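Annex B. Sample input.
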Amino acid sequence: MSIEVKNLFKFYGEQAAVNDISFSIKKGEIVGFLGPNGAGKSTTMKILTGYMPATSGEVRICGEEVDVDSKETKKKIGYLPENNPLYLDMYVREYLEFVGKIYKVPNLKQRIDEMIQQVGLEVEQNKKIGMLSKGYRQRVGLAQAIIHDPEVLILDEPTTGLDPNQLVEIRELIKNIGKSKTVMLSTHIMQEVEAICDRVIIIKSGKIVADNSASELQYEENKQVVYVEFEGDLNKNQLKKETGISNVKNVGENAWLIESSANLDLRKVIAQFAQKHNLLVLTLRKEEKTLEEVFKELTK
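Annex B, continued. Sample output.
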C-alpha cells in the first residue's frame, strides 16, 4: 500500500481532532478526502506528510513509518498545503530551482523544463510568482509538489478560488498525475470528486463515516427510484397496485417518482403498466442521490 493509517489519534488538549481513524490507499488510486470544516482533514494530511506528529497511531508511506524527522519518508511525498505558501518575490523558474535543490533533484534544469510543460506554465515561467493569477500559482504549487517525482501526492484544497476554466485544467492535470502516482486530495467541490476520484473517504468530527466509491455511496441498497412522465392521465392508486411498487409521488403534470425494492427492474413494470393502460412513456430515468446529498446526510 502507498498509504497506511492505523488507529490514528490527534488531540489538542482534551479535544480529539482525529479520533481513531484507519484506512489504506493503494498505488494509482485518486482518493477524495471529504468533510465539513473542522472535521480533521487538514490535521490528518499534515500528519501524513510528517509536518505534524500524531498523538498515537501508525502512519506508513510506501511501507515506511512517517516521522516528523524522517527525511527519507518525506522524499516519497509531494505536498500542496491549502494556503499554497509560495515565495512571491521569486521568479517561477528560480523558485522551482530552489525547491529542486532542497530535494537534490538530478538534472535539475531538465526537470524544471519538464515540470513547466507538464503543469502548463510555459507562458508564465519568466514572471515573478507574485504577478501570477491564482490559477497559475496553483500550477506552481503542483510543480513544486512533484518536482522530486514523489510516489505519493497529498493535495489540500488544490482548486480553491479558481474560475471554471482553471478548475477544469487543474482537474485534468491532477487526473493525469494520478495515472502514475497515489493521490489524496481534500475538497468541498463534489463535482470535482465525481470527476477525478476513484474513491471517497468522508470524515466527521475526527471519525471516518464513509469509505467507498462515489457511485456506491450514491446507491441506496434495497431501494430504487425512477422518474417517469406519461402522456395521458392516470390514477395514483393504479400505479400503487402494481407488484413491487412501494411508493408513488406525483411531482408534476403526469410526472411521477416511483419507488420499489432494488432487485426489481422498474423499467419492465412501467412498460407493462403503460401498455395495459394505453399510456405513452415520454420520460423514464433512474433517480440517484447526488454526492452532495450523501455528504450532507453523513455529516449533518
